[in-house]
Amino acid sequence: MNSVPDIYRVLPEVVLTLTGVLVMLIDATLPPHWARRSLGWVAAFGTTFAIWTSLWQLSLPMGTGFSGTVETSAFTVFFHVLICGIVLVALLLSLDTLPEKSHHQGEFYALIVFGAVGMCLLTGAVELLLVFIALEISSIATYILAGYRKHTARGPEAAIKYFLLGSFATAFLLYGIAMIFGATGTTQIYEIARLVPTAQNQAFILAGLGLMLVGILFKVSAAPFHVWTPDVYEGSPTPVVALMSTAPKAAAFALLLRVVYEMLPMLRPVWQPLLWVVAVLSMTVGNLAALRQQNVKRMLAYSAIAHAGYLLAAFAGLGASGIAAASFYTAAYAAMNVGIFAVVTLVSGYDEKLPLINDYRGLIYRSPLLGSLLIFFLVSLVGIPFTGGFFGKFYSFAAAVGGGAIWLAIIGLLNSGLAAAYYLRLALATAQRPDDQASSAPAPRVGVAVIAALAMAVIATLVLGIVPNGVLHAAESGAHTLQAPPAEICAPLNPTVPQSQP
Amino acid sequence: MNQINQSILTLILLLPLAGAVLVALVPDRFKLPNWIALVTTLATFGLTLHLPAHFDKAQIGFQFVVNRLWIEKPAIFYHLGVDGLSLWLVVLVGLLAPIGVVASWNAIRERRKLFFALFLVQQTAMLGVFLSLDLMVYYGFWELSLVPMAILIAMYGRKDGPRAALKFFLFTFIPSAPLLVAILWLYAQTGTFDFTMLQYNIASGILPAGPLYWAALAFLFAFAVKVPVFPLHGWLADTFSEAPVALAMVVAGKLGLYSMLRFHIGLFPLQARAVAPVLVGLAVVGILYGACLALVQRDFWRLMAFAALSHLSLITLGIYGLTLTGWEGAVYQILNHGVVDGALFLLLGLLYDRYATSEINAYGGLAAKLPSTATFFVIASLAMIGLPMLGGFVGEFMILLGTFTGVSKGWAIAATLGVILGAAYMLWLVQRLFFGPESALATTKPPEDLRIGQLAVLWPLTALMLVMGVAPMLWLPTIEKGAHPPMIPSGAKALVDYDGYIRGLKPPPPSGSSFSAARIANTNSMNGEGQR
Hints:
Structural class of chain B: mainly alpha
Number of strands of chain A: 2
Largest sheet of chain A: 2 strands, antiparallel
Number of domains of chain A: 1
Strand order of the largest sheet of chain A: 1-2
Oligomer: heterodimer
Low-confidence stretches of chain B: 486-532
Distance between the termini of chain A: 29 Å
Mean pLDDT of chain A: 88
Strand order of the largest sheet of chain B: 1-2
Number of helices of chain A: 21
């Protein structure tokens, strides 16, 4: 059987959990009037260590632990590193932008880390009940974080909306799991994949697939399950939006990849057209709605919906090429989106005095650094070459064309032309000469932690745009491990170590 | 020396980028960004001069080639090279960059760091377009060139920058989506983005004809908007009146015209031949339409915009006349137009800085106050009109000759009419700006003629116009070598209009064409490289 101790299979999760607990314990023992800012550094170091341990997991043979519930492979490591990277950036961002005396600061950091535990577990889980538990862990943390600014009217509204709709969606997922369990008698993903072709009751499986898709597509905010997105993004604190527009989505996309490509590859004729429709809907609805927004965060929320659509286009791709394209796009999207929300946080401030596009007028004159960075991330979102956004879209549409969905690629490209209009509106407002009253707004302060966060986002966006080979290799080896699940549970299928460098 | 020849193109490409990073890092004091930009652009210009100095004029094909695998999947190669077609265009970009810096020296007063950093990025993008031989790399630089331009127009627009920038960006960005689809389709069919290999694949006739026709059209559409060709010139006038001088002098023409020659006619000779009559017609309409509109403009930036439309249409006519004479004339005219426009924009920019208006009627009688400005302006205008002994004459003459002998006498006569109108609007502009009764504007502001820095730019430019007028043979043989390859693709012998060719200047090439055999051999060796 498996020679690797089970605990090694969940090492990053363990590290993150210990970090979260440590932060909460220190928070409880510190005198109430002491500043809690240093707890953020503790959380950031813990997350960095988690990244390191998950890279170390590459040296383990691929396989599962804890009776076939958790897997480590190049695929899980790719997403672990991605999610922990996003969490690290979000932590650094919060460190400098949370007000000095904000309430329950320790819990804020701890919740971010606990959310990361759930997300990481979600990407590694190969057992549907564990999937559900992991999804709940990550969701509950984000529900609370969404309502962190409880003194504002929008904060609790956002949290309650997110919580109600989110619970509804997880219920759908749970029903789907139950249906599939009913049809196959197991919740282990490899077992299901093995049993599905011979299962008696195909209707149950189809219903289960449909219900699970509803739950997952809600989490990635794809149309028509997107209505919560703008309100929640608008009401939540911006550093939290930077996190929740990227990390839980990355985890949910990993789950979607696992469900459709690994668990139910036989049902491709069913889920592929469904995802085709959802992709087209998401891009079109997201872009059309974004064109009309005046509030920057709402605009970016609709842009996130559109990007979910571009990403879903990769699911039209066959096998490994589709998985690799989707993974790559997730990384590119995360890098540029976390970056742009970081800039938005700094510009509009924690209490969001400057939420509208018009408020950004002349930003480049007020603060050249932030203005240039904002334009840089917007350029990447448009999909100009030499940025991550370009290759993300490129691989996604190339995978779609490879899978025979040429119209999907054409609709996608037309949509990116449409999207350029609203990204540019913000970029050009930023570059415009300020009128006299707007110039009175002070230039935002930029601290060390934020500089580090922004630098990480910029470097990631540039690396993905100029030298994407490394990440692409990692995504591809991840795709191959997902394509080739262990024949027997708990037995290391592939004696060769996947050699990849995320 | 061999070492240098191998890395010279990379150096040319990266030097402005390095300058941009440096500008972004230094503090904005003592005009430090200006000086760094000036030194960088001068150094880049020096490096581009290395190319003609070591260019083997006897050889056909690409030289100074770099070809390295950049991205494995899809196979994108960092493939750069110059031939006779692009050689002098690269030098022209190098030459215009320091002129742009000088033109912005006093005009740009705030956020200098950002301006010069973006200006230098723009240089890299333009050089990249001329140097790339891999379609994906080419597309990357093509798109990249839009971004700094749009941002700078938005930042330094005179009245409504963001609107002009948005117009410019969308006009040029949206047609590049079909361009990308066409490039990807070619890759899906042939498995390569490499220019030479694609040229060979398309000429061999293995690709389906219908989609190929659409792909060629997608290429042409993107380039025609960028030039611009009538009726796609909607962005031009606004961009010219809003863009900072240093960018207005490079925004139109070169990139699109070069791309037409290299990537439209060069890749799709048969398809280009099919649409050529349409483009000839549009070009002649553009010449006359631009000239007529230039006659009635009251704002000199807009006048320059429509004058540019007229001149660029003339070059388009030369390109789609599909005669060797026309092509040589077209490339020569691109060079000349770049030099002359550089000088004119520099001078107009100075006038605008000093008098803060671009209303032509507000000026008048400046010649007495600013004698040297007036002199340089008159010389540049004459070069633009096409006075013999100055650069414009050679290019226009060759284009018109090629059209007359190779296309149709009627079109040539109509185009010549446009040239006459060109003389009318330019001379009238000179008259209204510099001569006539002294205007209120001229009397209120103290006269301040050209300074040493501006003279240091204008003297060489004027000398260059003269040399280009009297000694075109310094350039033409190289251009002719470069103009050759798109003309005789191995699979499409019917392209060249031999009748027009014979009545042109030179004897026809040998029909057996040792040349095309050489190209096939060349392509095969490329294939070998690709597989390795």
